[in-house]
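Before the break, one more example. Copy the sequence into your notebook; we will annotate it together after we see the structure.
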Amino acid sequence: MTARPDPRFSWFVPIDGDGDRIGSLRAQREPTFAYLRDVVLNAERLGYHSLLIPTRFANGSFEHAAPLAETWTTASALCAVTSRIRLLIAVRPGITPVGLFAQQAATLHEISGGRIDINIVPGGIQGDNERLGVGGSHADRYAQADEFIDACAQLWSSGGPLDFEGESVRLNGAVVAPTPSPPAPEWYLGGASDAALRLAAERGDVLLCWIQPQDDMAALLDRARDASALAGRRPRFGLRTHLVVRDSEAEAWRAASELLSEAHPEVLAQRAAAVKSTAMVGAAAQARRVDDDRLGERLWNGISRVRVNLGTAIVGTPQQAADELSAYWRMGFDEFILSAYPHLEEAERIARDVIPRVAVAEQV
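Here is what the structure looks like once it is written out:
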């Protein structure tokens, strides 16, 4: 019997825009730097551990041509205005050459005082990489991600010169100076396919999962543990979920329904097309249609109708939400990356009313 550390709670940067309605053509609050800075500084004040900054090449919560804050530029700017909170930056391998990325990340690591981690996203939204002229199958992208992490980690460790000859990554005398001060950024990897779990087991520090019903998540963790055992490594698990929390259960479900009350047919059609025939196991699971979009007593995936990737929320009172998070912690999740609409105000509600109620077992 060994004691587990207390769970970590992190927040989310809404680079698509924000508001108490989603799925409209434009966000109520566009993702200006001034607004995102307010969200981030508020999360830092409230004591959240880290902030996930997603990666998109088109808007993923509103009409796809709506304003969008570019990930790496935004993360760099946010590093300069924060002092404590970490930044978990989502990156697509193959968009930036790995030698350049290794130097960029090492530089931002130093600027931030060692506060960045990297969320590698091999799969991505269907058709999104192609917007920038980057192709490749689902399998190709996972193989590329493996080489990307390997080459980058070698550069951070040695500084180079590094020669690397892979199928998709080739380096000839690449260097990084200065290398990241230890500890280097950690690697977060997500996904539910066999390829994703194998990559996370072999290369990742944290497997980051989108929330599903507890039985499904328990089965996923069993598969992840098996993959980690084969790789001879000890896994850590993170859970990504939305929350819709109100003082009463009826109010919470009403707020969930109201989130989609201004959803536009064009956005609904765009999101349906994004997951049609997708090779991403996790994305398909998020977007499955069930009666009233209820996956269980507390889980609702209506958000997936208008939002790419994670589309499921815990819905209920503060205590009900805390009980759900507690159950996932006991299952084995160590970190929770949370979000709620609008992100500015709801960060305070969750920090005040939900997180202090999360009860975890002292021994596992």
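The mean pLDDT is 92. Residues 138-158 form the longest helix (21 residues). Try to locate both features in your own notes.
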